[in-house]
Specification:
Blueprint (H helix, E strand, L loop, with lengths): L1 E5 L2 E7 L5 E4 L14 H6 L13 H38 L9 E4 H8 L4 H13 L4 E3 L4 H4 L1 E4 L2 H15 L3 H19 L8 E4 L7 H13 L12 H11 L8 H10 L14 H4 L36 E2 L5 E5 L8 E7 L7 E8 L10 H9 L3 E2 L4 E2 L4 H4 L7 H4 L4 E10 L5 E11 L2 E5 H7 L28 H23 L4 E3 L1 E7 L15 E4 L4 E7 H4 L2 H23 L6 E3 L7 H8 L7 E3 H6 L8 E3 L26 H16 L10 H39 L1 H5 L9 E4 L4 E3 L4 E8 L4 E7 L1 H6 L7 E10 L5 E6 L3
């Protein structure tokens, strides 16, 4: 098994039992046996220059034969031991409460192995095969599975529904005919009336009632609409496909996108339903193996219960009063979780140097590590900023009770903060730092666009491919600030430029890729009904805006000012923990993987902000290793942070649980006021938490990408379905281009060759289908552009845009 990294895209090359080489994604690897085959043999088994030739070189064939012999020998050992291992697992399932629960549960192969009392890799592989084979009960988690070996355990009701529907299908139960008739009526009515520009709303259709058997069928269809692994069988495929085929309402392949559309047309879920984010509930299934947070005590030694808040401010005796120093809270219009503010102080004795203060909201003023809110925050891990709704990590009612910056100021009260200060010289170097609990008395809440206007900076441009440019200036209210405060903002902006210039001189760079941002004018959108007794009649659809951008164009002006200050605060936090020997989980990254020649080329292509066009990164085959979370002071290459310093995220405790942990750890040290004290969270606890962080972050990022793509394609689908859009004005689909971001690959299942591309005009990734030998010969190489045209799209939990080559 070999791997290749280009940009942020990594692929794996595996040898199949047939002797063929297969290029696939890292997520497709479900189990690995280290050291089964030595590396020299692996390297001989693949010759990229000869792979497409009819006859492979003899040394390559010999190496593959050697690998296959090892694999088949292992398979025979597994066959010999599988039966006895499976019997032990069956006995475990008889007594385990998690195996027969009303709620979703989580299990790992390691837990099963501990119960069996055998950690041998062969037994581990047998356990893995057992859980994969019993796919009706155990679902391999969709992210980081190779590292975690975690399975979700299906609850009793979905299992009962699946068994009931399968039984109905086996005996042709008359209840099925009644369901088919109602479904056809509902779908026919829905397809006759699909146009509405009104606000979204829904009401129960009491003219139709679903029986208990019909509700079970609906739940099975609903449960089928979820993301699954192609490497594990799906127990829903056969019963759902059979129901859909007998209903006769769809043609072709029955996938979760087709079933989701049926549920919309039946009035079971709303037209604006998002099936992707429903999966977040599984990502938030509590883990039984997580190490609990440390218990918290008051100064008298009494332990705090999960319902009690801190009875007092534990760092009140060391809080620094910033008095009338202006602190600027800068965020987007409508932002709700305001968790940071900036201040600046000149240093008369050191012209050109300044103290930059980053004040961060202090939810740990009240919440201790074992509070109910803290435990829930750990499960959810982060605030979910979905397009159709926002789910705060800390409940809004509590957050507005003096935690979100600006809420106290509006009532004439001071703001409690944790302040990370750095002394910055003319070169953008951090020459000194301070970390203090702080008190703010002069807070100004501003918007990014307002600050840009005050400083005379260009407004952030918008590219709206489906609409005229929005007029942001018409509703912009210029805040009333004293000239001295405007100058302080200007100094803050100039310091951000020094930070960027410093990274440029350090030969750092990052790529800038097209992105899409879909926004909903009014959210949350109306939820689905949880009562399946009646279908619903839905009307209207939320108003959406489709915007294409790039990070290089987005992080400018006031946005850059804030972003650079936050990076500096994270460096200060890491230095503090390093110098006080406090365990902390830092974000790390290593230098790009590329030849010296390629690195020299891309460095020459940087803009002054250190960005390089995505296509140039691809052409030069520069790979960025995936970032990691570690309890060490390893550097963060992209941020310009050297080894020995580290980068500790602390600036978003209202919306990231990891930042809350960092605040508890730092404040525990501050409260000691110089007295030696054991850290609140031990090194071992932090090491385990780093793994938990990585697993959560990878899964949530993957879900977020699919969520944004779903809404982008939903917008495109609705736009193309309205004939007025194609008749009026220029068509955004007329001159599409695709930039190849992955080498071409063969899809054996669909018998086609494809290339993963990104469409800069739309800001989304797409699958370029190559039809025949002629188009395959015209396939684009990595980083190169090719004219493409719209082919189709798929919604559901695995949204995808399809394109094909366009003649010019």
């Amino acid at each position: 098994m070999l791997s290749q990294q280009v940009g942020n895209d990594r692929t794996i090359l595996s040898l199949l039992s047939t002797g063929e080489a297969w290029v696939h994604l890292p997520e497709d690897v479900m189990f690995a046996v280290p050291g089964l085959v030595d590396r020299p043999t692996i390297m001989r088994a693949y010759d990229p220059q000869k792979e497409e030739e009819e006859q492979l070189p003899p040394k390559t064939i010999a190496a593959r034969v050697a690998v296959l012999k090892k694999i088949r020998a292992l398979e025979k050992e597994v066959e010999t031991n599988y039966q006895s291992v499976s019997m032990k697992i069956h006995r475990i399932l008889e007594d385990a409460p998690w195996a027969n629960s009303e709620d979703w549960q989580e299990i790992t192969t390691a837990e099963i192995l501990r119960t069996i009392g055998d950690k041998d890799v062969l037994v581990q592989l047998c356990v893995h095969k057992f859980l994969m084979a019993n796919h009706d009960r155990f679902i391999a988690q969709t992210s980081s599975f190779l590292e975690t070996q975690k399975f979700w355990v299906r609850p009793r009701q979905p299992l009962g529904d699946l068994e009931a529907v399968s039984r109905m299908l086996a005996v042709s139960d008359p209840a099925l005919d009644g369901f088919y008739k109602k479904a056809k009526t509902l779908v026919a009515t829905s397809r006759m009336d699909q146009t509405s520009s009104s606000s979204p709303a829904g009401r129960a259709n009491i003219s139709i009632t679903f029986t208990s058997e019909e509700q079970a069928i609906i739940r099975v269809l609903h449960d089928f609409v979820r993301s699954t692994r192609s490497t594990q069988k799906d127990p829903y495929v056969v019963p759902v496909a059979t129901v859909m085929k007998r209903m006769g309402l769809s043609e072709g392949k029955v996938d979760q996108a087709v079933v989701h559309k049926l549920l919309i047309e039946m009035g079971v879920v709303a037209p604006w339903d998002d099936p992707v984010t429903r999966e977040r509930a599984l990502l938030c299934v509590p883990s039984r193996t997580s190490i609990p947070a440390p218990s918290t005590s008051t100064s008298s030694g009494a332990s705090l219960s999960p319902e009690e808040f801190y009875p007092r401010d534990i760092v009140e005796h060391v809080r620094h009063d910033f008095k009338d120093l202006p602190a600027f809270v800068i965020d987007d219009e409508g932002a709700q979780e305001l968790d940071d503010a900036l201040s600046i102080e000149s240093i008369p004795s050191e012209p050109g140097s300044y103290w930059l203060h980053v004040h961060v909201a202090d939810p740990t003023l009240k919440i201790h590590p074992n509070h109910t809110l803290a435990r829930q925050a750990r499960i959810q891990y982060t605030t979910s900023y979905d397009i159709h709704s926002t789910t705060p990590m800390i409940p809004s009612a509590f957050m507005y009770d003096g935690l979100s910056l600006g809420t106290n100021s509006r009532n004439g009260l001071s703001e409690n903060v944790l302040t990370f200060s750095c002394k910055v010289n003319e070169l953008g170097d951090i020459t000194d730092y301070k970390v203090r609990a702080g008190l703010l008395r002069n807070v100004h809440v501003l918007q990014y666009n307002q600050v840009d206007k005050l400083l005379g900076l260009p407004a952030r441009s918008q590219f709206l491919p489906f609409a005229r440019k929005a007029n942001l200036e018409s509703r912009l209210v210029t805040p009333s600030l004293a000239p001295a405060q405007v100058e302080e903002l200007r100094t803050l902006y100039n310091i951000s430029l020094k930070f960027v210039a410093n990274r440029f001189l350090s030969n750092r760079f990052w790529f800038s890729a097209p992105t899409v941002k879909v926004t909903m004018d009014s959210k949350p959108s109306p939820p689905n009904s949880t009562d399946l007794t009646h279908p619903n009649i839905f009307e209207g659809f939320p108003q959406l805006t489709y915007e294409v951008g790039e990070q290089a164009y987005d992080e400018i002006g006031a946005r850059r000012m804030v972003a650079e200050a936050m990076k500096a605060a994270c460096r200060v936090a890491s230095r503090f923990c390093r110098d006080h020997n406090i365990p902390a989980v830092r974000r790390t990254s290593t230098a790009p993987d590329a030849t010296d020649e390629a690195l020299a080329d891309v460095l020459s292509l940087r803009d002054p902000d250190t960005y390089i066009p995505y296509e140039d990164i691809m052409k030069k085959k520069v790979g960025f290793p995936q970032g990691d979370n570690q309890v060490s002071t390893k550097g963060h290459w992209v941020m310009g942070v050297p080894d020995g310093e580290g980068y500790l995220r602390v600036t978003s405790p209202l919306r990231r649980y990891a930042d809350l942990v960092s605040h508890w750890q730092i404040k525990h040290a501050l409260a000691a006021d110089g007295t030696p004290v054991q850290p609140l969270f031990s090194h071992d606890w932090m090491t385990e938490f780093a793994k938990e962080m990585t697993t959560k972050e990878v899964a949530l990022r993957a879900l977020e990408r699919r969520h944004h793509l779903f809404w982008a394609l939903k917008y495109i689908d609705r736009w193309r379905a309205d004939p007025r859009n194609l008749a009026e004005g220029p068509n955004p689909f007329d001159n599409l281009e695709g930039i190849a971001i992955r080498e071409s690959s063969a899809d054996a299942t669909l018998r086609r060759n494809t290339v993963r591309v990104i469409i800069p005009q739309l800001g989304v990734r797409a699958m370029l289908e190559l039809r025949g030998a002629d188009e395959y010969a015209r396939r684009p190489m990595l980083g190169f552009r090719v004219p493409v045209k719209f082919l189709g799209l798929t919604l559901g939990t695995k949204p995808e845009l399809g394109v094909t080559l366009r003649d010019v």
